[in-house]
Amino acid sequence: MxxxxxxxxxxxxxxGGVRAARMAAGLGVRVAIAEHLYLGGTCVNVGCVPKxxxxxxxxxxxxxxxxxxxxxxxxxxxFSWSKLLAQKNQEISRLQGIYGNLLNNSGVTVxxxxxxxxxxHTVIVNGQxxxxxxxxxxxxxxxxxxxxxxxxxxITSNEMFALEQLPKRILIVGGGxxxxxxxxIMRGLGVExxxxxxxxxxLRGFDDDVRDFVAQEMQKKGITIxxxxxxxxxxxxxxxxxxxxxxxxxxxxxxVLYATGRAPNTAGLGLEAVGVALDGRGAxxxxxxxQTTISSIYALGDVTDRISLTPVAIAEAMALVNxxxxxxxxxxxxxxxxxxxxxxxxxxxxxxxxxxxxxxxxDIVIYKSVFTPMKHSLSGLGExxxxxxxxxxxxxxxxxxHIVGAEAGEIIQGMAVAIRAGAxxxxxxxxxxxxxxxxEELVTMRKAVE
Length: 450
Prior knowledge:
The chain has helices at residues 15-26, 41-46, 48-67, 81-106, 157-160, 177-188, 208-220, 271-274, 310-326, 354-360, 376-379, 408-420, 425-430; strands spanning 6-11, 31-35, 109-112, 115-119, 122-125, 128-137, 141-143, 169-173, 192-196, 224-226, 233-237, 240-244, 251-253, 255-258, 262-264, 297-299, 339-341, 347-351, 364-371, 385-392, 398-404. It is of the alpha/beta class. Helix 3 (48-67) crosses helix 6.
């Protein structure tokens, strides 16, 4: 009989890895988890949590301006980057402590160090070998910067959370979640902000109306956006950096942030040597049960490069543990997963975009509303809200809801429940609205736009 040190060895103490470790340990499984950077992974340390805190900070710029329309008279606001950074660091330290306590109290052995898979049942950490019945890889993703002249002069989103001081001018390269969110953060904190993207619209994969609307609102807030623009080289000057896009006017900045995507974090794990199949981007290939090409090795979350969202990694972790140790199958339903982009204003979306819906069905009808939310009737800021609903005419089923506006991320959670429950347009129409709110627009849209 084979003797193992642990029944389950988890590599990576991010959201998915921690949830899997805790759940399994709670079922009596002998679990170890290895992490060489920080407990909580990307989300807690250099992702969702600190970024959302920065978004809150940036939003006060608009709030101070808006207050004048409501009778407030303020002195000149002063912002301290060092104060925000210190407060953020304190909160992250608190969360790291919570993660550590959760693991320890669950009976999980926490090992500080870089783990390498030696074979199908062995993990090496700090020179020590651990024999394990099963291995779970949950190492997440890592910022990916393409090769080009001057690459050494740019930073990634990781470094944005530890800047010693704010730049006066920033150039952000990219057009996805991270680029768009940091553009709003930097502009809100008073930084002259320019965004460059090689495509024609931001936020690839989102509804086209959302993509256009977000760009318009960002530009209204003073963010300069250059579409169809590819940076060819970056050079350092006495005054900062100059980015060459092959166009007439070079782009100057004090800081260049590359937010051009994230790659699966599989380098240095030893996976290829033991026969775990990876794709061209380094993502671990898994089947429907999160099993790799080595039957005793599993993977979930961003490292599999499927749907890179923290709640998805957590759901996958719960499904895997239930499957392996809980005696029940609770597969993750990947349809109609809601998401939010914390730009300013926020984006909240769930279900099919109009383009996706029209590819699947021939009888799509669209309801859409663009309006000035009540707050901005007095604020003077001119911010608009977009709400859009995608419906299939033959069944009356609501296939998608897309929002750009204040608290869109909060609103979309409830809409996700409705869509997953199969709500029809008639159900929305018969629901009494909460007045006065922006969200009531979703139950009062009666006239289709096309």
